[in-house]
Structure formats: structure tokens, C-alpha cells
Write a structure and sequence with these properties.
2 domains; 38% helix
Length: 370
């Protein structure tokens, strides 16, 4: 498909709000409303613009977010890890990563106190020589995001008026303290099966109407209208814009990990993103044990500048390029079957979180090990 600047601008603008009005969209990309509508409709018809998805806050559901980086001994093992991610009930996201080695970056949202099962799972994979190594990091619950700002993009030169080394150099010397981490919910007496169903469908397609949710869930309109509002208010963190990255190859997505990052540096990064916001889609997660995770999408030129600046400013810095194309990454829907509504508890056992996922990938393991 032929790319025009207006198309690129539409994709950037919708990162801020997937349900942005056509009048606001036309204002942001600086074209008339009819032209913005025409370009949007064409991108939608071509399958470039996909359904937005709801991203839930794990803490609001009594879950803790952890990240696992696996390094693989060879390419055939990739199939096993991706099958395992699909089989595991608590996988939220996975993507292939490239750097010095090929690997998989995985995000799990798991019940409190069950990280030992994730460790057991990946230790088993090391023993079976499916992965060469793995590293687990846990979110503290302190996160922030920024979104593309077209005011800093020059369409004539296809460049951004933003310089990473300067941004790092001007971070506030004495910034405010980090906000209090999100509290992990422990009482689920008000969490209902209807809410679980609605959340599942919204994490697949956040644009579903009340009537469509009724059809998919089999619930009455009265129940859906009541529970939908509760789900949006209590559990949904953001609505994420989605588009086909295989059609437009204009950006690069990377993740950067830093360890032994002191509290002052964490505060400077967090408040810098809040007050002097970079004009790209960026997510910062303050991890436990003085670690940070930065997830960012930008042009290749900006990516190289960002990487260089990070090496200068973030201790023990590691960077990975993500494969965000259709086959390279996958978001997983909320899975209400993980929750036992009778006992009011998340399912958490070695059998459920280790043995069953491994059994589901047994055929692929045998094939590789032959």
C-alpha cells in the first residue's frame, strides 16, 4: 500500500486515543476533516487499522506483573517457547527479541506469591536445553507512558525535533518522589463472572458496543450496561491502539533494561517523562530491586540516538530489538477461567502453572530434541 504522510500521521495520532473524533484527528494531522475521514476509512478497509484492545491493570485484579527474557540456543527452540506462551494461562504478551542472540520477551500477570512456579518452569526449560538462560524481573507497580506528538515532527524532512542526549542532560536535578506503587487488590468478593467475560472480550476488541457484548457474552443488556461500567472503571488501565506493522515499516520498537539504577535516577527518568514528555510512544516501568524497563517505538534514527544516550546514562544497560510484526509478537486476552469464582481465588499450583503448559508443548519438544 502506498504510504502518504497523512497515513503515517493518523497512526501516530491514534496512539493517544483510538476513539479520537475525526475533527480532532484532522486538527492533529493538519488536513480537512473530510480528507482525514477518507484516509482513516481507507486504512481501516485495508486492514491497517485494527481493533483497539483494553489493557488491564494487573494490581486491580490481585495479580503481579513479571517480565521474563529468555535467550535461546538456536532458532528451532523458538517454536516451543511461543507454543508455551500460548499454552500458559497467565501469559499477557510475548515477542521475539534480537540482539546478540535470539530470544523471547514475555510478560506474565500471575497470582501473588507464584513467581516460584514461573522460575520452576524456566529452570525446567534450561535443563531440557530449550533455552540457554533466562532472567525474571518484577514490576513495582509504578508505571508511566508517553504518546507521539506530531508537533515535533517535520514532514518535509521526515525528522523529529527531539535530541535524546539533551533530554537526558536536562532531567530535573532534584525531582519529586516516585508515586506510591499501585496496591495489589486482595478482596475479590465483588468480582463477578459477568465482569470476567466482559473484560475478556474487551481485551480482544475494546470497540465492542453494549449490544455486541450482549451477543458475545449471552448476558442481558441490563447486566452488561451495569458491569461494563465497573470493568472500565476498576480494571482497565488504557485502551491500546493497534495497527498492522507489516504494512508500514517506519518505526522500530525496542526495550531497554537497566539494573542497579539508584532511586534518584529512577525519579529523574519518571518525572522527565511526565514533565518534558518525549514525542514517542514510550512506557517506563519501575521494577523491583533497582531495575527499570523502558519500552519505546520510534524512527530508526531516533532509536540509535536513544540507545547511545541510554548507554551513557543508565547503569548496566541492555537493549533488545522487538519483532512486533504479526508472527513475531502476540497479545493474549484476559482469561477468566484462571479465576475460581466459587472460592474467590486465582488458580495457582505447580500442575496448573508448570506441568500443564509443559505437557501442551511436549510434541514440539520431542520434535526439536530428535
Amino acid at each position: 500500500m502506498e504510504l502518504k504522510f497523512e497515513d503515517f500521521a493518523i497512526l501516530l495520532a491514534l496512539n493517544q486515543d483510538p476513539f479520537m473524533s475525526m475533527s480532532e484527528l484532522s486538527r492533529q494531522i493538519k488536513v480537512s476533516e473530510p480528507e482525514a475521514t477518507e484516509r482513516y476509512d481507507l486504512l481501516k478497509a485495508k486492514g491497517v487499522i485494527k481493533n483497539p484492545i483494553a489493557i488491564f491493570n494487573p494490581e486491580s485484579l490481585g495479580l503481579q506483573r513479571i517480565y521474563v527474557i529468555t535467550i535461546l540456543p538456536d532458532y528451532p527452540c523458538l517454536e516451543i517457547i511461543e507454543e508455551l506462551c500460548t499454552a500458559h494461562p497467565y501469559t499477557h504478551y510475548r515477542t521475539r527479541i534480537y540482539g546478540g542472540s535470539i530470544g523471547v520477551f514475555i510478560q506474565f500477570d500471575i497470582p501473588i506469591g507464584t513467581q516460584k512456579y514461573i522460575e520452576m518452569l524456566f529452570e525446567t526449560l534450561v535443563e531440557k536445553k530449550i533455552i540457554a538462560s533466562f532472567e525474571i524481573s518484577e514490576s513495582s507497580g509504578v508505571r508511566t507512558e508517553s504518546y507521539p506528538n506530531l508537533d515535533k515532527y517535520n514532514a518535509g524532512t521526515s525528522s523529529w525535533s527531539f535530541i535524546w542526549p539533551i533530554w537526558f542532560a536536562t532531567l530535573e536535578v532534584d525531582p519529586p518522589r516516585l508515586p506510591t506503587p499501585l496496591e495489589i487488590k486482595r478482596n475479590f468478593s465483588e468480582f463477578t463472572p459477568a465482569q470476567g467475560k466482559i473484560l475478556e472480550f474487551l481485551t480482544e476488541n475494546a470497540s465492542l458496543s453494549i449490544n455486541e457484548l450482549c451477543d458475545k457474552s449471552g448476558l442481558s443488556k441490563e447486566v452488561v450496561e451495569t458491569e461494563y461500567s465497573i470493568v472500565k472503571e476498576k480494571y482497565v488501565g488504557v485502551i491500546r491502539f493497534m495497527y498492522d506493522r507489516e504494512i508500514f515499516d517506519l518505526t522500530e520498537t525496542i526495550i531497554a533494561f537497566g539494573s542497579a539504577v539508584d532511586l534518584l535516577r529512577q525519579e529523574r527518568l519518571y518525572n522527565g517523562i511526565k514533565t518534558d514528555t518525549p514525542p514517542f510512544f514510550l512506557s517506563l516501568d519501575i521494577l523491583k530491586d533497582n531495575k527499570i524497563l523502558i519500552w519505546i517505538t520510534m524512527s530508526p534514527g531516533q532509536a540509535s540516538d536513544f540507545t547511545y544516550a541510554c548507554w551513557q546514562n543508565i547503569p548496566n544497560f541492555k537493549i533488545y530489538v522487538l519483532d512486533t510484526k504479526t508472527q513475531g509478537s502476540m497479545h493474549y486476552c484476559f482469561y477468566p477461567e484462571n479465576f475460581d469464582f466459587t472460592s474467590g481465588k486465582w488458580k495457582a499450583s505447580q500442575e496448573y502453572m508448570v506441568d500443564e503448559p509443559l505437557q501442551a508443548t511436549k510434541k514440539a519438544m520431542v520434535k526439536i530434541q530428535k
